[in-house]
Amino acid sequence: MAHLTDGALRRMVDDPDAKVGADAAHLDGCADCKARFESIAGDARSIAALLAVPDVRVDVQHAYDRVMAAPKAQPALGFRLPMLWPAFRPVRLALVAAVALFALVGFAFAASGLFVQPTRVQAVPITLNDVESLSQLAEYGTLTWTTQPDLRITTDAAEAKQVSGGITPPKVAKLPAGVSSTLTYAAMSRAVATFKFSAAKAAESAKAHGKTLPKMPAGMDGATLTVTIGPAVGEVYGNMNQPQASTKASQIDLPQLIVAKSASPTVTSTQVTVADLESYILAQPGISPELKKTIQAIGDPTTTLFIPVPVEFGTATSVKVQGVDGVALGDNTGVGSGVVWIKGGHVWAVAGSIKQSDAIQIANNLS
Amino acid sequence: MQVGARQMTVARPENEAFEALFTAEYARVVGIANRVLADAHEAEDVAQEVFIDFHRLHSASADYAPAWLHRAAAHASLNRLRGARRRQKRELAQATEEGERSLDPQKQAELNEDRRRLREALGRMAPKPAAVLVLRASGLSYAEVAQALGVGVGQIGTLLRRAEDTLRKEVTRGTSN
Q1: Quick check: A78 pLDDT over 50?
Q2: Sheet containing A324-331: which strands, arranged edge to edge?
Q3: Are the beta carbons of B150 and A72 separated by less than 8 Å?
Q4: Rounded to whole angstroms, how far apart are CA atoms A195 and A192?
Q5: Helices (DSSP H) in chain B: which residue ranges?
Q6: How high is the pLDDT of residue A299?
Q7: ipTM of the prediction
Q8: Is A103 helix (H, G, I), strand (E, B) or coil?
Q9: Which of A47, A58, A80 sits opposite B44 (nearest CB)?
């Protein structure tokens, strides 16, 4: 058998139970692996010794009281959601795509509030601080769904097509090696939400967060934004078992590939121009200079769909997809990737735990 | 969406869930930050910020709560480390283990210097391997580390090894003593 990997040997250092079966037999009989094991174990010991610190004695009750007394400990969106935490790589990428495609509540006005009808995509670097500042915009008014989205997960392509108002799920010409052909459809009907700005609510929110707000542009108090998202349809390759409370993360089968197609979102507004809105949002305290610069450099925000790329987790590059400009996304470890583009009035996305070249290949051959 | 009504009905159980989460995880979150910063006070500051950030956005009954906290503790303290390398010399001197008091001053000085360099190198490393190393050193199991960082449990050995290899090359002196 082949030599043991460094990773396998390292695990054996920590966990004697990992020394079983064929691996253990190999280690016993292989001088080369034995020597590597000793050197790996030696490194592990010396690094552990250098990282050693005396235990800290904590006063949990005192610390809890301090945390609860902090004004910042109030919910940022006015409520808390047990939402999916984007720790898992393919899911995280899917989330980036989902932010663009489905314009999640809270992000709706942050990420996509600036366009009217996008025809092109552009990546914008976004930091966790930006997300936090932007998410507070949700407190500056009242959100109402005038048409609730109907979300459906199904294994039936015809049902998905029906929910998504007739959008045919895109077909992947050829799956990369190792991607499961188990296919699940996700569909969303068209949804419309309106957001009504309120100067009073903005002032209240600023007070609660101890922030000083930029002056609202004239006419913004009482102005409404109407956002239309979807319909959209997506395909998930791989097992889509929902995480259960009792399930260890390591046992969850993650989707390997997601392909999605959505009608381009639209935004209309009353009383306030896109330019006013843009400068107001960018003047919010906490918005990073990088984000400001990128957005201000974009010529016409009314035809651009911003793809927020969390700089802590991912990278973005411009690519040509199906003859149009697209954004290729990658996570920092290079294991997951995705690509987003707009063509024919639809936003398209391909993402998963696949190589970027595979993602672009799939994108170019979608039908 | 009736946000106000929802908030009112969930407020009390949410606070109870948060208190339970805090009680269960606070010491461990401090431990992770202390592993990186080697400073008990700073570690408690980081831990409290992490809990405040969590409480603002997430429900304490979410499945991912402990994993989120562990990851945030590692990243927040590594970020601080990058900004605060200068202060380390003094702090690391205080972090000396009991058993090492008997070392001769020369050896002790070397060990402290190695610790300082190790943490400097840790601050320069890519976030993911650095976080794997820190979380594992703080006593999290492979499965817990994997959960916190959103990587497969099978990758932890490789990431750990890579991190240790990088650090060993940076800290060349005195580690075999």
Answers
A1: no
A2: A151-154, A183-188, A232-237, A257-263, A346-352, A337-343, A324-331, A314-321
A3: no
A4: 10
A5: 3-37, 40-57, 65-83, 88-94, 105-124, 127-137, 142-149, 156-170
A6: 62
A7: 0.81
A8: coil
A9: A58
